[in-house]
Amino acid sequence: MTTSLPRHRTLLALAVTAVLAAGATACGNQDTSTTKPAAGASASFGSQQGTAVTTIGDEKVTVPDNKPTALFFFSVGCGECAGGAKSLATAGKTLNGKANILAVDMDPSESPQTIRQFLGSIKAPELPAAIDTRAALSQRYKVAALSTLIVVDPQGKVTYRATDPSSDQIQTALHKASAK
Q1: Domain total of the chain
Q2: Which residues form the signal peptide (predicted)?
Q3: Are 49 and 101 within one domain?
Q4: Confidence label for 15 from pLDDT (cuts 50, 70 and 90)
Q5: N or C: which end of the chain has fewer CB atoms below 10 A?
């Protein structure tokens, strides 16, 4: 009976390590920037209708649209997401309507008020945001991790995917997507 105690500790340690690793992966800050679409994310949706969402400001948005769109997937509870959302807001201001930007909250339990508070805390209250209540955007574009930014061209093809890119990286990716 005393020999099973070390085994239980080992199993417990392995379980805790797995949970911590999963949490770090879901909200990490590693840079996976690439101008090539991620595997499985390059399917074109040109002949399909876009995905319609309503922002927390009650605006109707369709992705893809006639302009390239940057989508940043976040949750208010993700500390790493603040930097990516701020970069998206800065890129949006700089591009001045030449591309669409949208922060997509992956947690359907977060209220519009909570999201507004988050946007205010990162000094980006004007950043368009929507709640992905039925995971329509995350499923369509195969996004499973927080802090992921994708750029979708007007035909619906993912042309860029990264974790917490800078404002300059977002702008460059949007310019490349509009040139295609």
Answers
A1: 2
A2: 1-26
A3: yes
A4: very low
A5: N
| In a shared domain, residues 153 and 169 | yes
In whole angstroms, give the CA distance from residue 138 to residue 121.
Answer: 25
Q: What distance in Å separates the CA atoms of residue 149 and residue 93, rounded to the nearest whole number?
A: 17
Task: List, in sequence order, every beta strand (DSSP E) within the chain.
Answer: 51-54, 60-63, 69-74, 100-105, 129-131, 148-152, 158-163
Q: How far apart are CA 128 and CA 31, in angstroms?
A: 24
Euclidean distance between CA atoms 27 and 86, whole angstroms: 16
Query: Within this chain, do residues 147 and 164 fall inside the same structural domain, yes or no?
Result: yes
DSSP structural state of residue 118: H
Give the pLDDT confidence of 104-144 residue by residue, as tens digits.
999 999 999 999 999 999 999 999 999 999 999 999 999 99
The single residue listed with the structure tokens 């994310």 is: 41
Task: Specify whether 146 is located in the same domain as 96.
Answer: yes
Same domain, 60 and 134: yes
